[in-house]
Amino acid sequence: MINARDELPVGLPAPPGAAPVEWRPREGLLPYPEAVAFMEARAAAIAAGEAGELVWLVEHPPLYTAGTSAKGEDVLEARFPVFESGRGGQMTYHGPGQRVAYVMLDLKRRGPDVRRYVATLEEWIIRTLAHFGVSGERREDRVGVWVRRPDKGEGREDKIAAIGIRVSRWVTLHGMALNVAPDLTHFTGIVPCGVSAQRYGVTSLADLGLAASLDDVDQALRQEFENLFGATTDQAVGSTENNSPERCGLKSAASPSR
Q1: Catalytic residue at 193?
Q2: Catalytic-role residue among 193, 205, 208, 217
Q3: Which among 75, 179, 192, 216 would be 20 to 30 A from 234, CA to CA?
């Protein structure tokens, strides 16, 4: 069934002549505070014209993050550290086997439309899942990407990817988390994204019986990102030394979105 959010336009290409977006996968488990500090520094540099746009692909150790709409009671059991994130949304889990994409784009140049940006992130995930034969769907009342699970019962569906963003000076921070092969029992310590109805759960590519690696997913993500947002490059574009992960102390003001 088509809903209003299905009718939002998708795609936010860069203006003609713009530099390609830096595409940077990172190996190993990245501590969450380091990720946030780096994103804030890079976003500030992008807004100042001192660095290029970036998609940063990471994995985290097991942890929970609280968005700007999070409620304390949504932490059922603090099995892992809980971090306040500054992004929109509620409680989310991150951990090994989950591909987190931190997307730092300049919406002032691409189009200052946050709803369209979120719809395009969802479309990015949906098109990526199609590479693996998975039909992902968006929902009018629940941001993220969902998979129908008739094998679990009538009306059952599971979330396979979460979206939570922040916008500062029209530069985006945070992004999306796609479940490739995480330990799904780790989600039981929270009410994921505030959705507590019994017919909604969480799933992953592995849970759906698909043996995809992070590299496999990254290749599909890159192809579909380029279809929706434009060209990417493996090289840093217009970066300054302050944008390296080792030098990321600069803070930026937050403008939480969804």
Answers
A1: yes
A2: 193
A3: 179
